[in-house]
Amino acid sequence: MADDQRVYSEEEFALILRKAAELASRAESPAASAAGLTLTEMKAAAAQVGFDPALVERAARLLATRSTASPLERLAGGPLRHDHKIRLPGNLDEESAARLLSAVRITAGLAGRQDVGHSSSMGMTWHDGGETESLSITARPEEDGTAVSVALDRRGTLALVAVSSGIAMFFALLFSGSVLYAEAPALGVAGGIVGIGGALAAARAYWASSTRKVRERISAVVDTVGETLGRADAISARGKIGDGAEASEPDASVVGDAER
Questions:
Q1: Nearest 5°: CA angle at 86, between 107 and 71?
Q2: Among candidates 157, 163, 119, which has minimal Cα distance to 138?
Q3: For residue 115, what pLDDT band results from cuts at 50, 70 and 90?
C-alpha cells in the first residue's frame, strides 16, 4: 500500500502519471494496446504526462534511422551500409525542395568534401562523395507527404581499418617471432596471440566508435529534414490564409461605386 505521507519528486511524479496512463489505456482498449500505438496516440499520451508532443514526434523520426545489422556486423561493431527510408508529413514543392537542399548541405556536409545536389518540383537529391564514406539523401513528394531516403556506404572506411589492423598484426607477429620466440618459444606464441587480439580489439573499438558518430550524423540529417519540411508546410499554410484574406477583402472601387 502506498504511503500517503511520502513526498515524491517531480521525476517520480512524471513516472507515476505515465504508468497511470498506461494502465488506463490497457483498461479501456486492451486490443489496441496489444497491437501497439500510433504516433498520434503516443503524442496524446505524452501530453497527458507533461511531455512535449513535438519531442515525441522527433524521437520517432530518430528511431526510424536505426539500421538493422546482421550478426557478423553486430560482432564487428556496426553495419557496413546504412540505408533508411522514412515518410514525413508536409508537401514538397520546388521552393521547399530548394530550402531543404540548403539545409541538408549545412547539416550533412563536411569541410573539404565535394557535394553534388539538385532540387526541383520533382524533389531533391544530394550526394557527398567522400573518399572513404559516401552519403546520399533523396526526398520526393508523394500523395500523403514526402518520402525521404538516407544511404551511407562505409566500404572505404572498412578497407582502411582492415589495412591498418593487418599492418599492426604483421608487426606484432614479426616482433614476437623474431625477438620473443628466440628467447622463449612459449612467450613468442603468447606474444603473437596477444598482438593479434589487441589489433583486432582496437579495430573493432574504432569501428564501433565511428558507427556511433555516423548514426548521430544521420539522425541530425533526418531531424533537419523533418524540421525544414515542417517549417515549409507552416509557411505554405500561412500563405494560403493570407491569399484567402486578400480575396475576401472587397474592392475599394466597387465599394465606392456602390456608395455613389
A1: 95
A2: 119
A3: confident
Kindly report the average pLDDT of the chain as a whole number: 74
Residue 252: predicted pLDDT: 42
The b-or-e profile of 157-194 (16+ CB within 10 A means b, else e) is: bbeebeeebeebbeebbeebeeebbeeeeeebeebbee
pLDDT of 6: 66
Whose grid coordinates read 604483421?
170
CA–CA separation, 179 vs 157, rounded Å? Answer: 33
pLDDT band at 230 (very low <50, low <70, confident <90, very high): confident
Q: How much is the pLDDT for 125?
A: 92
pLDDT at 28: 54
Instruction: Work out the burial of residue 115: count CB atoms within 10 Å of its CB; fewer than 13 is exposed, 13-18 middle, 19 or more buried.
Output: middle
In angstroms, the Cα distances linking 148 to 54, 221, 223, 237 are 19, 11, 12, 22
DSSP code at position 144: T
Edge-to-edge strand list for the sheet holding 123-129 = 81-88, 145-153, 134-142, 123-129, 115-120
Q: What percent of the chain has pLDDT over 70?
A: 67
CA–CA dist 245, 167 (Å, integer): 71
Lowest mean pLDDT among 101-115, 169-183, 227-241: 227-241
Task: Give counts: helices (H), strands (E), the chain.
Answer: 10, 5
Torsion from C-alpha of 136, 137, 138, 139, nearest 10 degrees: 180
| β-strand partners of 152 | 82, 135
Query: Of 237, 222, 66, 67, which Cα lies nearest the Cα of 149?
Result: 222
